[in-house]
Design a protein that fits this description.
Shape: globular
Structural class: mainly alpha
Largest sheet: 2 strands, antiparallel
Strand order of the largest sheet: 1-2
Oligomer: single chain
Strand content: under 5%
Number of strands: 6
Number of helices: 29
């Protein structure tokens, strides 16, 4: 080993630690992988100051590119491959001198001993750099051979099982049929299966019984609506404009177009292209124009005193950020003011991408004048009666030059740029320099991100977490995929299928991986189930929690499409906003069947989304959201215990049970459980429910007015033929079942 040269300012303790680490044996150990082992450390601890952002780069040192790292910075050679003791980066990470140690103490991101060892080993092994995995072309993979040949049902399982077998882990047993049926029906439709559907499945002993269920669900309107609800988060759909006044807008025709596209199983590339650029087609149809409402889903301000151009630029930024997140999985918005601190995207490249969306014909909307300008912005009329027709917002082109905006300021133009895509991705040469060209570039086989990002979000929908945990970030700060070969196989297979979503979903939900029992396995150190050694289990989304209560009770209105509706919500939620009284919107609850429409039709006001949706982590949709948070708070129990919708659902569920099973209490309890949980109640559960029923019945028989008051909390009529004390007691039982953790969880 070469003699280590030190300076007086470097402590001897660091010197001896370096010697000890260099002496660690490397024989018998797998070589480090830069993308898996090293880049995450450098990205998290070093690239903010030594990455591609030249305006923030310190010491003249750049570590995100090999040639620059080898050249070093102001303090000399940062890396000498094979020679850690001559590499400044190693000396600095081991230093205990505050003026020299890296990362600096002020960053509050010290390296762990394990991370230091990895960096030393990496330099010792030659300091090999590789491209980031997500920017590399999608590779063709054959499903690997496995020892347990009888377990796989689709190719998905071979990739999963191969990894489990290397770790000597057995998959979990298959879930019970009722558990699978509830799981797949909730996932694909947002509703529980009906008793008739459950009975038919349990009686079907054919080899393709599971496949028949999936095929039936994929053809349903419920599937189209469920997929649309997810896409509405992605596309930041709302029925209001946001900003200070948050006034109403007409966007529901776009939402209905999305439902229709999923109903038709429109190829995904066409689905995206029509939304990005339907207005640029030759002789576009009205439906293709309505599809471009995707680009108009962002907020609009009508506040007095705003600058038209400033807000127009903000809207174009929103369009660019949404496309970057949703179709490329990149945090491009980080480049609005400077080069990206982590990913190889410069501010110039950002504004070249921004240029695709900078030609929208819309204008900013200052004050009251803005109402007229917004009305004059591109739209199409929808509805049969011209006098009552709604204006659906669409896209239209208006030629406009684009410049790099210094510090992101609308009035500080710099270098002129043309529409282009980031240089680390396949070339944009040969494509039209507009949104239609961008859409075509996105879907070519050479683009490594579009298919990967899409199949990852679909996987996330069914497993609660993507193969790449960071669904919104496939860049250097994102997570590595848990099963990289499976991710690429799904992406390539999806593209080769003609971008067939049904094909992709069948591969996932008919797999043995998906069909595993979901019970937690304490013997595995895998709380997040990244190994996929058990079935997925997670809290249901907000819409499904409400919709399953309506469906089980028989209240649900199955009408598809149309203007948004307003179910019950607490008084004053809208009125308490800070907007001046002249602009305050008044919440007027819908009536009749509209009260019980699916939750995706609930009027979505950005500044005050429905409280039951907000409490269960639905986003306000001010920005593109590709992954909802998943919290567990006391407020959620207050919703399911006190919201009029859940109280009414409990009563209607009790009415349904009493009409079907008017006499035997045990059958009543069992039926209520089956309608929500799709399984029979266990003996212990039946005992507890019957005890609760008799306790509540005794209470109401003593206090009959209390029973009548409970039954009239909401407006829908009570069946006069039913004994109110029995109905109230059974309603309490049903209310408890609606509040079970199992009811709110997809297992």
């Amino acid at each position: 080993m070469a003699e280590v040269k030190t300076q007086d300012t470097r402590s001897m303790k660091s010197f001896f630690l370096l010697l000890a680490l260099l002496a660690l044996p490397c024989m018998g150990r797998e070589l480090l992988d830069y993308g898996r082992d090293v880049r995450p450390i450098l990205s998290d601890r070093c690239f903010a100051c030594h990455g591609q952002d030249s305006s923030k780069r310190e010491g003249g040192l750049r570590l995100d590119q090999r040639d620059a790292a080898m050249a070093g910075g102001d303090s000399g050679k940062a890396i000498k491959p094979g020679d850690p003791d001559a590499s400044e980066i190693i000396i600095r990470i081991l230093s205990e001198e505050r003026d020299e140690m890296m990362p600096p103490p002020k960053a509050k991101k010290p390296l762990t001993p394990e991370q230091k060892e990895i960096l030393i080993r990496w330099v010792k092994e030659g300091a090999v750099y590789t491209n980031h995995w997500s920017f590399e072309p999608i590779k063709s993979h054959q499903p690997p051979q496995v020892a347990a040949k009888g377990w796989p049902r689709t190719a998905v399982d071979q990739f999963v099982l191969a990894q489990l077998e290397t770790k000597k882990i057995q998959p979990s047993p298959e879930a019970e049929r009722t558990a699978f049926l509830r799981r797949v029906t909730l996932d694909l439709t947002g509703l529980p299966p009906s008793p008739d559907e459950t009975k038919a499945f349990l009686m079907d002993n054919s080899a393709n019984a599971h496949a028949k269920v999936v095929d039936r669900l994929l053809k349903s309107d419920d599937y189209a609506e469920r997929m649309a609800a997810v896409w509405m988060d992605n596309a930041r759909y709302a029925d209001s404009n946001g900003y200070q006044f948050d006034n109403r807008r007409t966007m529901w025709p776009w939402r209905d177009w999305v439902i229709q596209a999923f109903r038709q199983n429109m190829p995904y590339d066409r689905f995206v292209t029509q939304q990005l650029a339907g207005d640029l087609f030759e002789s576009p149809t009205q439906d293709q124009l309505i599809a471009t409402g995707f680009n108009r889903n962002h907020g609009y301000s009508i506040e007095g005193g705003i600058n038209d151009e400033e807000y127009r630029v903000m809207y174009a930024n929103d369009k660019a950020a949404t496309a970057g997140t949703l179709f490329l999985g990149l945090t491009m918005d980080c480049c609005r003011c400077h080069d990206h601190k982590y990913d190889p995207i410069s501010i110039r490249e950002y504004y070249s991408f921004f240029a695709f969306f900078n030609t929208s014909a819309e204008a900013g909307a200052p004050g009251e004048k803005g109402r007229k300008e917004m009305a004059a912005a591109p739209f199409v009329k929808v509805g049969d009666d011209p006098a009552a027709a709604s204006r659906a917002m669409i896209m239209a082109e208006k030629p406009r030059e684009t410049f790099v905006l210094k510090k992101g300021l609308f009035d500080q133009p710099g270098e002129k740029v043309s529409p282009r895509t980031p240089e680390m991705l396949p070339t944009f040469t040969g494509y039209a320099q507009n949104r239609l060209g961008l859409a075509k570039w996105l879907t070519v086989p050479e683009n490594p991100l579009f298919a990967r990002v899409t199949v990852n979000r679909i996987w996330q929908q069914f497993f609660g977490m993507g193969l790449v945990k960071t669904a919104d970030n496939f860049g250097l700060q994102g997570e590595m995929p848990s099963h990289p070969e499976l991710l690429d196989w799904l992406a390539e297979d999806f593209r080769k299928s003609g971008w067939d979503l049904h094909h992709l979903i069948r591969n996932i939900v008919l797999s043995a991986t998906y069909r595993q029992d979901s019970r937690f396995r304490s013997e595995l150190d895998d709380a997040e189930n990244r190994l996929l050694a058990r079935g997925p289990s997670f809290r249901l989304p907000a819409e499904t929690i409400r919709d399953q209560a309506l469906a089980a009770s028989g209240l649900l209105t199955r009408k598809v499409g149309g203007p948004s509706v307003m179910p019950h919500q607490p008084a004053g939620v809208w009125e308490d906003l800070s907007a001046p009284p002249s602009h305050t919107e008044i919440y007027q609850a819908s009536s009749g069947a509209d009260l019980y429409r699916k939750s995706l039709y609930t009027f979505w006001r950005r500044a005050a989304i429905h409280p039951a949706m907000a409490v269960f982590d639905a986003p306000n949709r001010e920005i593109c959201t590709v992954e909802r948070s998943n919290t567990n708070t006391p407020l959620q129990a207050l919703v399911t215990l006190n919201d009029p919708t859940f109280i009414e659902a409990a009563r209607k569920l009790a009415e349904r049970v009493l009409k079907q099973e008017p006499i035997e209490q045990e059958k009543q309890m069992n039926l209520a459980v089956q309608l929500l949980l799709v399984r029979s109640a266990e003996a212990k559960e039946l005992g507890m429910l019957k005890e609760l029923y008799h306790d509540r019945l005794a209470h109401y028989q003593i206090d009959r007015p209390a029973a009548e008051k409970w039954l009239r909390i909401v407006d829908s009529p009570v069946d006069a033929q039913l004994d109110p004390t029995r109905l109230a007691a059974l309603s309490d039982v049903c209310h408890v079942i609606l509040n079970l953790s199992e009811t709110l969880t997809r297992k």
